# Entry
Amino acid sequence: MSEDKDTFMGVPRDTIDWKPTIDYEKCDYCMECFDFCPHHVFEKRENEPIKLVVANPLNCVVFCRACSKTCGPDALTFPSKAEVSKKIKETREAMSSHE
Amino acid sequence: MSTNKKVNVIACSGMGKVYGLMAREAVLHTVQRLCPEQAKTLCLAYIVTGDEEALAGFDNQPCITVDGCPAMCSAKSVAAMGGDIKEELKVLDVMKLHKGAKPGTATELTPEGWAITEEIAAKIAERVQEIQKEER
Amino acid sequence: MAEELKIGVVSCSGEDCAGGTISRLATRKMIDEIRPDNTVTICLPLFIAGGQEERMFAKEYPTIAVDGCKQACAKRATEKYSGKVNSVVFVSEIIGDEFAESPALSTRDLTTEHQAMVDKVAAEITKQFDEIMNAKGKDSGARKSSSCSCGCDC
Amino acid sequence: MSDKYAVLPCNGLDKCAGQMTKEIAMLLCEGTQNEMICPVFYRVADARYDKIAKENPLLVVDGCGTRCASKLAGEKGLKIFRKMTVTEEAQKRGVTLPTDTLRLSEKEIALCTAMADEFIKEETAVPEQMVQAVEFPAPAEYLIHKKDKFIFRVPTEGFYFSENDCWLQVVGNRARIGITDFMQQSLSDIMFFTPPPVGVELEQFDEAGNVESGKAVFELICPVSGKVVAVNTELLTAPERINENPYEQGWVAELELTNFDEEKDFLLNTADYMKILKKKVDEFHVNKQKG
# Structure
């Protein structure tokens, strides 16, 4: 749709490592997270052994962890907020020193 | 046998959300099945036009409004047109008792949605009975 | 893509007659399934309850009123509080006065016959919608989405 | 604040985290006025606990994300004053819970003790009325974005915004936080509100409570670091205030700022937030059509 690249807090979204990780040992494919997330981060794989994947990690809203609260078996984890915000700050500084 | 006129039960019938349909269905359930002898419904769209004939439908009788959302269309419109509101019911108040429930869409209710709608209807019917007693 | 033209659809949602139920469902079908990209639903009682958004809409955009019975509440209320409507669909003319004025119908009791009435009314709204769109010289997107099974001529 | 709480644990017997909720509830009730509610009995017999549950602020202890205790509270029409979830706390503190046994080892007991202690300490934090009142002026003017029949408002002066659709209003070293008009409209009718705990120190981007509508749960991402000195308790009974007026009566919490000068670089002013809002409105629209 839009030509301009997605950014978050001024840095390219694809430089930010923020997405849920599914622990397949715990996941019971109840699909609560899939139904919950309005940003289509998750996708179902009907005919495959692994029936749910994080298909669109860049759609995931940075710092939002709301899907993990819908997860009964606690199969969803996120990176540490402190580390991610530190990284964003560093990227911003690097970008401004290049200007 | 009561000689009282019927209590007016008026739903918002909101088009945008499932709560509007729930209000509408709860009111229909009340006036058609639970207490057809003691309650009737009036068309909110007609009241909104402000026509004298529409307002005559109030019959100088008490009203119960049933609203889907906090915009309170039914309560506000009925009040603006001079209806005597005895009770303002809200679908959302009942929804709050069913956290996480999926009642359906603005066109169709799920079985869960129907169950909650009947709960709302029971509440309306209870108020209808009480109001009729008070008016006597 | 240029900014799409939006048309508002105001249904009477009459609580007193079966025509209101059909009107309401046909309007939603139009908005949800047939022309979701170009329609906005306008809540009629919100004209009084203070929705500035709804009151402004019919002043600025074309609007279709869908009325269950001859009272034409949707048309009259829209014109009283907001702005002139571009067209009116009379449900009772399409499905017959007798049924339209029979007691209000719960969605629980919908039959396939009622569903056919909904489709017929939705088709009429669509027809008027496309006429307005064409008059505005815009492509309504009708030709692209021919997958609907509403019985309309799209 | 009350000195007596009703404590409702989930007591999930088939998971370690569930076993821990009973332990935490015991620690919270031992030597205090607090009273415990048995979730199993409460489920079948309202009368036994209704009085305790309705007359005291309710503390809910959930084991895992299924949140059975929260759901039970919802079912009974109770408003939750505070809730804690064992798995979330474990993750926050870097504790891995065992999956092969239901018995609690010292490590788990230590986590239970820490969670209970934190609440007991928080309970004795400065009460709301002791905090010196600060006047937060109502926004004088709004920038407006219109899309179809929707109107989105953004205050022009005195407010900062985050890309997570939260706002911040700063007066001296104090600030109020809340959710923006755009997010409020996206969520539609808000039915539940969980405030952040008073007295807790939040880091920038930590969760500062959440709100729930029929559509979604929205986690408030705190735009700055600070100590929570007050929460808008009116929202506990009337969360729809957020829908009615997200920038005034709908405020969520008040913070004592700890690192604002440095952190404000990461916040947006009205014009910049407006740009993001417009983009989100367009995307939301596209999503809606697809969905």
Notes: Chain A has a mean pLDDT of 87. The longest helix of chain A spans residues 81-98.
